[in-house]
Amino acid sequence: MTRTVYIRPIAFADSPQSEEGEAIRLGGSMAWASRFALIVRENGRVLSRTRFGAEQAAAALAGLPAELGASAEIQWANLRKVHAPLQLPLKGGGVRTIRLEQPQIAGILNMTPDSFSDGGAFLDDAQVASVHAAVMLEAGAAMVDIGGESTRPGAGAVWEGDEIRRVVPMVERLAAMGAAISVDTRRPAVMEASLKAGAHIINDVSALRYDPRSLELAAASGVPVVLMHAPGDGEDLHSNGDYADVVLDVFDWLAACRDRAVAAGVAPENILLDPGVGFGKTLAENLALMNGLALFHALGQPLFVGASRKRMIGALSNEAPAHQRLGGSVTLALKAMEAGSHLIRVHDVAETVQAARVWRGLRDAALTDFAQLP
Description:
Helix content: 25-40%
Number of strands: 14
CATH topology of the largest domain: TIM Barrel
Number of domains: 2
Strand content: 15-25%
Largest sheet: 8 strands, parallel
Structural class: alpha/beta
Shape: globular
Radius of gyration: 20 Å
CATH architecture of the largest domain: Alpha-Beta Barrel
Number of helices: 11
Oligomer: single chain
Order of helices and strands: EEEEHHEEEHEHEHEHEHEHEHHEH
């Protein structure tokens, strides 16, 4: 029988002062948590759930069985871990720095004919795509995420040669602009060609599982890599979505993928984790995942979240089509910020950056609200 333990933040604060110092900063972000649920499972079934305040952590963890105590201590340290900024070398010299102490926005650029949201809008006109990318960067995107394959449910497979043809020219254009670039692909040939063209980050929706060569390439490249949860293997990433508890199951899955990548030689500081909102999950499961985002700080890696224009928004808003899901997308982005997510992947950059700046202003004000109190 296998027992596992989890420390889930369940009460949040605008600042540590509001809890008289009895709150922790989640993942070095601008999110603070004061109370936590200590959950023990055995073979997927929850055995116990107790609550404790930040000041009671030592006693709560000391009361665990010996086989769970070490894991809980690591998770408690991870919840408070401050992540170093991403240092991305530019082709023309210099470094692009993405700091992770505040939420950063990644703009989506789909070089595909069939993506669920904007497929075909940029594929046939490189100039239009370049202008769109430049507008996102000007609006405040910290990076641009370029993809050449739709991963929506039912999308057809793409030959890697076609994917390279779609993606690499745009990577070269953006690299010439000095942009930070991630490439959204699960094929090692596309990863390699994109990195040579100037991309900085591998964003793999299969968490380096689709092709066994991807692990070796990611390790050898030394670049940051995003590992995303998707329950399916092979071409259909949305299959096999069967969960006892979607939040805890995704946590375990990401922990295993992180450990697999580290064992293959990927540096731990180069791993970002994405819970995979919308991939092989029902509406209820997606909502649970968004509500449980703060738990994933216990894995000790920066969090990368993408919920922009996802199907769940349409399901909650009279089946609004993808291009009419701005309000819901910004709401989910703000939810990710409240949970301390470090990078948020969106279609509507200007609107989300504006929301993030107002949210940041509120947080900055909260950090000084109590400064004059005796």
